[in-house]
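ZP: hey, is the pyridoxal-5'-phosphate complex queued? I don't see it on the tracker
AM: it wasn't, my bad. submitting now with these inputs:
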Amino acid sequence: MTDVYAAATLEHVSGNPTFGDAATRVLSPKDFADAWDEITAWDGYAPTPLINLAGMAKHIGVARLDYKHEGPRFGLGSFKALGGSYAAMRVLGRELSNRLGHDVTLADIRTGKYADDCAKITLVSATDGNHGRSLAWGCQRVGAPCRIYIHAEVSEGRAQAMRDLGTEVIRIDGDYDASVALAREEADTNGWFVVSDTSWEGYSEPPRDVMAGYGVMTTEACEALDQAPTHVFLQGGVGGLAASVAALLRQYWGADAPRVVIVEPDLAACLFESARAGAPTTVNIAEETIMAGLSCGEPSEMAWEILTEEASDFLTMPDSIVGPTVRGLARPEFGDPVIEAGESAVAGLAAVIAARTSDALSTKLGLNDTSRVLFIGSEGVTDPDIFAMIMSGKDHV
Ligand SMILES: Cc1ncc(COP(=O)(O)O)c(C=O)c1O
């Protein structure tokens, strides 16, 4: 099993963490607490499991591996269920308060008091799948119209999952960046509201709310642990997940917070390149990685503000170790529970398994037999066709 991991090339660059105040300034304890209070009041809320992979930990020579399995999250299949849907409610709350001239609470929106008004506010976003599904779900729950822009490579399974939630899906010929541009342009022309999971200059409120929503999973994970992990390996797309988790771990554990290691596909390593350049850096995506949720060429500015202060290490990894890790979780060889995970969920675990085949990389990352590593298993089977393909042993779309 380890051959493919030993053969994999992982590039490493050290961060330059200053552990400044970004972890409380960019995302405040109140941002996280407000999101927690709202999201845990939603119908169907239940914490997702934190699964101890004791067999795998022993096999690769670390003390603990804890995998936060986001597959069951609100029946939507990924941690993204916490972000877009919460940000949608916050946009509606702000807009309705403006229009009606008095404070409209999220509880009022949630319980349908303003359903007629919500029906007049259209929310839009570009997505590679999971964020759009969350936004579509949030809109459906409160009766707001939703339009989702997807690029040519987004799988039909993911598009259909959004249509099933009553959203209009617009597929364009270009890439992700083109879908973002069109969503923004059409929103401007028509008076619609963009609810994006990435931030740019002058656009920060919805992405902050998205990241605050993700805090629910991190709080659940912290509460389920007896002791702070020594490491957290976080997969990066635009960096929103990683920044949110890093910020909350710092707020929760203080000086005992784990070492933050960012893991990205080598085909879309914008955070890695940002670390190397010392500033947010955009990369060109020449080929799509199998980890669709991580295929992002441009970091979120707000996420980068946190990561540059909190992340100690940045890694790239090849697609070749994704399939073996998905199969290893679904058909455990070392007595661990069965986990059905999507491609983007396993990046951190794949990187740790590969790192433990190399003394040099383990040393750089401070990984040894006393390490306690936390992962965010960010999605379950969000695309059944791709999961079936991987399980059949085929590792490329
Ligand atoms: C399943 C999954 N994991 C991880 C990520 C990465 O999150 P971020 O883009 O906030 O870094 C995404 C993003 O779409 C995702 O869908």
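AM: back. The chain has a mean pLDDT of 96.
ZP: great, adding it to the tracker
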